[in-house]
Amino acid sequence: MLSRFFLRFASLVTLIALSVCIYAFTTVANDNVLTLQSTTSTENSGLLRFILSKFSKKTGITVRVVAVGTGQALKNARNGDGDVLLVHAKAAEEKFVKDGWGVERFDVMYNDFIIVGPEEDPAGLATAKSVDEALKRISEKKVPFLSRGDDSGTHKAERRLWTAAGIDPTPASGTWYREAGSGMGATINTAIGMRAYLLTDRATWISYQNKTQHKVLFEGNPQLFNQYGIIQVNPAHHPRVNAKAAAQLINWILSKDGQEAIAAFKVHGHQLFYPNAKVQETVN
Which helix (H) or strand (E) holds 185? Predict the structure, then answer.
């Protein structure tokens, strides 16, 4: 009995030691792996593949991208799934930092939102003089409008624009106002099938191939400005955050090299994102 006890005890000690070794190896191996919570627009457009390959080549750090809506990305980061955020809903980002979940927020780049729709333009958006007028024409004519409906940065911007126009489309949900609950690319595809209007970021629209008879019908208004920011997840809340690699990524994106990489990314000859970081800013 005693020998059996010692045999079991020795087995348990061996298992614990092996587990510690595996954990230590995993920790060391993951020092050069970073999780970036970002948006479907940065992923669908191809930007992240373009710039992160340059960062990885320079530093040896592998970046694992989780591409979801901004709201979900912020939620994931609050839950400890991620080291860095690259998203586009400034008010929500600033609250994330103020609440202690993020270390500091930095501007990175911008582009703009556009409203696209069927080329026959039943609501007459092409002649609208403002965002308010464009949205009022859609709601008055009750023509199909497809929302992301997923708490993404684009969805947050869309809801803000409806509010500014004095319109609540929620009661019309399921009639002329529909919610896709999906990423930007999938929402564009659904809107085209429905012959519906939608708000999209310009980068995803330019990158998207299957436009068929849809076209840009309203653009160029200051209310459609689309700012992106970057935040390191706070290791004080989540000790497993790879703070060293996170700081390296943020510093590179804010640097001259990172900003030039963003500016150099083009699709069909079009620059999709415009860097506007203060390049002297660094994260420790």
Answer: helix 184-194
For 48, the enclosing helix (H) or strand (E) is helix 47-59
pLDDT at 59: 96
Q: What is the CATH number of domain 115-224?
A: 3.40.190.10
Q: For the purposes of burial, counting CB atoms within 10 Å of the CB of 38, is it exposed (0-12), middle (13-18) or buried (19 or more)? A: buried
DSSP state letters, 226-280? EEEEEEEE-TTT-TTS-HHHHHHHHHHHHSHHHHHHHHH-EETTEE--EE---TT
Gap between the terminal Cα atoms of the chain: 58
20 pLDDT higher than 50: no
The stretch 67-96 carries a mean pLDDT of 96
Cα angle 62-68-69, degrees, rounded to a multiple of 5: 135
Task: Report in angstroms the alpha-carbon separations of 68 from 37, 111, 157, 185.
Answer: 7, 19, 16, 12
Looking at the chain, the number of H-run helices and the number of E-run strands are 11, 12
Kindly report the CATH number that applies to the domain delimited by 32-111+226-275: 3.40.190.10
* Identical fold between 32-111+226-275 and 115-224: yes
Backbone Cα Rg of the chain: 23
Beta strands in 123-247 (DSSP E): 145-147, 177-179, 198-201, 214-218, 225-233
- Mean pLDDT for all residues in the chain: 89
Among 197, 145, 150, 196, CA closest to 41: 150
